[in-house]
C-alpha cells in the first residue's frame, strides 16, 4: 500500500509526522462509522462547522475493478461537486477517478452518477481549492493553515500538491431519501420514537396533575 508521508506534500513538520498515523485512524473510522452513516442517509448528522459537510465518493478500482468508497469533504460550485485529495496524487480514489472518470456521489440527501475531471487550469484550480478547503470546516482550514493570510503563490503550491476533482452530475440515482429508501425508514423511526416520547410525557403530566400536590406530613 502506498504510504502518504510524502515529503513533497507541503504540510508543516508536525502534520507531516502525524500524517501516516492519521491516515490509519481515518481508514478505521471511515470504514466503520463515516461510510455507513453516509450510505444510510445520515450524512446530516456529521455535517458540522468543525468537519464541514461530507459525501461518499464511489470509484472503480483501477486494478481490481471493485467499487471503492471514500468519505470526503466537498463543496458545490457552478453545478459541479468539488473534492480535494488531501493525501496528494497518491490517494487511491483520486487515481481511480483519473483512470475511470465514471463515479457515483452519495450526498447527504441524494445520490448521483457523475463524470470526474481534474482541474488543471491554474486560475480555476486556485479558486476551486480555496472554495473546497473553506467548505471543509475548521479541520480543513487548520490542517493547511490560514488561507486568508496565504500568498497567491502559497495557494498555488497547495493546489498543485493537493489536486482538485470537479464532478459533473450526469444522472440522478435512487437515493436514501427517495420512497422506500433507508433514509426514509430512519426518519420514520425517529419520528415514531419522538411521538412516543411526547405522548408518554403528556400522559405522565396528566396523571401528576390529577393526583395534585401531596399534603405534608
Please explain how this structure is put together:
The protein is α+β, with helices and mostly antiparallel strands. It folds into two domains: 13-176, Roll (Pnp Oxidase, Chain A), CATH 2.30.110; 179-212. 45% of the residues lie in helices and 22% in strands. The protein has helices spanning 13-39, 92-99, 122-135, 137-144, 152-161, 182-211; strands at 54-60, 67-73, 75-77, 80-84, 102-107, 110-118, 164-173. It has a seven-stranded antiparallel sheet with strand order 2-1-5-6-7-4-3, with helices on both faces. Helix 3 (122-135) packs across helix 5. It is elongated. Residues 1-7 have low confidence and may be disordered.
How much helicity do the residues have?
40-55%
In the CATH hierarchy, the third-tier topology of the largest domain is known as Pnp Oxidase, Chain A
Q: What class do helices, strands and sheet pairing give?
A: alpha+beta
Strand residue percentage: 15-25%
The biggest beta sheet is recorded as: 7 strands, antiparallel
Distance between the amino and carboxyl termini: 75 Å
Q: Encode the helix/strand succession as letters.
A: HEEEEHEEHHHEH
Do you know the CATH architecture of the largest domain?
Roll
CATH-wise, what's the superfamily of the largest domain?
A: Electron Transport, Fmn-binding Protein, Chain A
Overall geometric form: elongated
Strand order in the largest sheet? 2-1-5-6-7-4-3
Low-confidence segments: 1-7
User: What's the gyration radius in Å?
Assistant: 22 Å
Amino acid at each position: 500500500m502506498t504510504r502518504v508521508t510524502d515529503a513533497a506534500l507541503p504540510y508543516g513538520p508536525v502534520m507531516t509526522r502525524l500524517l501516516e498515523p492519521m491516515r490509519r485512524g481515518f481508514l478505521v473510522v471511515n470504514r466503520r462509522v463515516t461510510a455507513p452513516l453516509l450510505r444510510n442517509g445520515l450524512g446530516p448528522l456529521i455535517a458540522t462547522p468543525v468537519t464541514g459537510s461530507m459525501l461518499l465518493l464511489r470509484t472503480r478500482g483501477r486494478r481490481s475493478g471493485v467499487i471503492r468508497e471514500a468519505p470526503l469533504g466537498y463543496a458545490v460550485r457552478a453545478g459541479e461537486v468539488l473534492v480535494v485529495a488531501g493525501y496528494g496524487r497518491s490517494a487511491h480514489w483520486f487515481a481511480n477517478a483519473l483512470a475511470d472518470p465514471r463515479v457515483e456521489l452519495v450526498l447527504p440527501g441524494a445520490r448521483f452518477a457523475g463524470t470526474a475531471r481534474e482541474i488543471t487550469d491554474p486560475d480555476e484550480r486556485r479558486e476551486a481549492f480555496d472554495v473546497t478547503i473553506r467548505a471543509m470546516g475548521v479541520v480543513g482550514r487548520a490542517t493547511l493553515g490560514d488561507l486568508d493570510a496565504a500568498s497567491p503563490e502559497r495557494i498555488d503550491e497547495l493546489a498543485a500538491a493537493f489536486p482538485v476533482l470537479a464532478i459533473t452530475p450526469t444522472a440522478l440515482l435512487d437515493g436514501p431519501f427517495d420512497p422506500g429508501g433507508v433514509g426514509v425508514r430512519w426518519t420514520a423511526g425517529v419520528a415514531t420514537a419522538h411521538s412516543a416520547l411526547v405522548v408518554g410525557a403528556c400522559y405522565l403530566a396528566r396523571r401528576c396533575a390529577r393526583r395534585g400536590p401531596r399534603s405534608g406530613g
